[in-house]
């Protein structure tokens, strides 16, 4: 059965009016029906709260970022649905620093277009960034397109129970994609593709920019990675084969040349559908909480409370079908908590009545950690990016004694799991052990990417070696700090609480030093702090203590938060079932990065577009 089939789109108006009864006794019913027919100006994008007052929607989506844009566009393909997507930020689609890929530094420091969620860690103020505005983080991100190894997605199904596999999710990732094959000119530079891995009819344009770096240093950098740590050259970073190093494509408009026009979830899924009469994107507005039906059984969302600013009026908008949380991995669990879904201790503290006891909400946060090393020299990269050389390095690429390393990791799993539970970052020790064992098999048996090396140009020096641990074992948490969508959530990623995560980060930094040495470039002081002195070289490319201090003083967040509303069995701390539906509810879903149960060895967007496409299908099919 489809959701919300009682709602009529504007296109049905003339025949509906003819069908309405004329007797005065039916006038209140007539009023109800007319109330549900909503009219608006030609654009689906508005910041006018009046556009949704006194209206009922079949679906209300909270957050118009990656997942929210996909789900709203797909649900509104059915003219019998009426979809409202609520976005905290504004319509930033034509902002210069959003449009042009080379404005990355500018847009990520633009307060209007970012949430800087404020965690503290290791005595440092470290924020986790997320995009704010239509398209969410895809309107500010680095545009890199890579996908996780096949075995990792299979493991989500086999080990965690999501029902996913590479074979099942690849068609959804392809459905989102419109790949533009590289020209011969770009191919000669090393831009390649595996046609079996790419979609060519989807809304999200992906390809290699004509401004691709052409300098010979880029291929030398790639060869230095292969020759130094053994990461092989691969054809394509999107066909599920790892480890490997290659040029990587971007979400960039084909033919946009020097303008390097960004393709975001907003330009791909909102702009082409703006004329739909059954779709509204309401900007500058936050989803505060769900109001519930009084009936018994699974909790049923009746309306969603919205607000435009901290002192603004509350507006309750009725929903006949489903509510979809798509506010990202930090804000979606907060929206559920403010709605009374979560653990009783937290909700009691906030003065919120518990509707659904669900301890996993906001737990299991995974966030990756990045260290940026720099070097001067190597020659002109000849181009202006975006940088597109990425290596996924395996444990064998990084550690010479990986069987000893495995033993060390396995010996510590119990302690890591217990510490996550003790810190309130995980619900079940056994579930954590299940996740960690899955990671161990992926890392050691399947040689999945353990570290990403993002080869940058011009940041932090002529050559950049930005490295991050892709598969952290540390787990953190997110919780509302006040009974308001305008409160700052408490975000505690518990970086490096699993000691292995620090070992990986240190080994990655050492590997970059060796690669720079092979390239013959002059390593600048890691962390570009002249007073710091860096980490002196030595037989092991710098001693453990030196690297430890440097990593802890200089690391930053990668801005890839995940897993705070995991898809997993409820007893394992799962928040959504395999249909993306929140346990204990009949019509509330989560569709964004929160549902991914563990970190992945890739940039997130290509994978998340596939997950959101899958979520849209599941929500369409749900009763
Ligand atoms: C700086 C940065 C660089 C990145 N670089 C890359 C990259 O190069 N390649 C890649 O693949 N991935 C990259 N990513 C990651 C990727 O873009 C995100 O993982 C992805 O967009 C997450 O999708 P989402 O739907 O979960 O959340 P988002 O896309 O972040 O969308 C969430 C939306 O919800 C809105 N919102 C929040 N709270 C509320 C509320 N209460 N009410 C209403 N709306 C709300 C937000 O404003 C936002 O629009 C990057 C991310 C960042 C932040």
UniProtKB/TrEMBL annotation:
Residues covered by the Glucose-methanol-choline oxidoreductase C-terminal domain: 472-612
Keyword Oxidoreductase belongs to the record: yes
Keywords (A to Z) from UniProt: FAD, Flavoprotein, Oxidoreductase, Signal
Gene3D superfamilies: FAD/NAD(P)-binding domain, Glucose Oxidase, domain 2, Glucose Oxidase, domain 3
Active site: 560 (proton donor), 603 (proton acceptor)
Record domain Glucose-methanol-choline oxidoreductase N-terminal: where: 59-366
Top-level taxonomic group: Eukaryota
InterPro entries, per the entry: FAD/NAD-bd_sf (IPR036188), Glucose_Oxidase_domain_2 (IPR027424), GMC_OxRdtase (IPR012132), GMC_OxRdtase_N (IPR000172), GMC_OxRtase_C (IPR007867)
Pfam families per record: GMC_oxred_C, GMC_oxred_N
Cofactor(s) essential for the protein: FAD
Signal peptide bounds: 1-19
Keyword Oxidoreductase: yes
GO MF annotations, alphabetized: flavin adenine dinucleotide binding; oxidoreductase activity, acting on CH-OH group of donors
Protein family membership: Belongs to the GMC oxidoreductase family.
Name of the featured protein: Alcohol oxidase
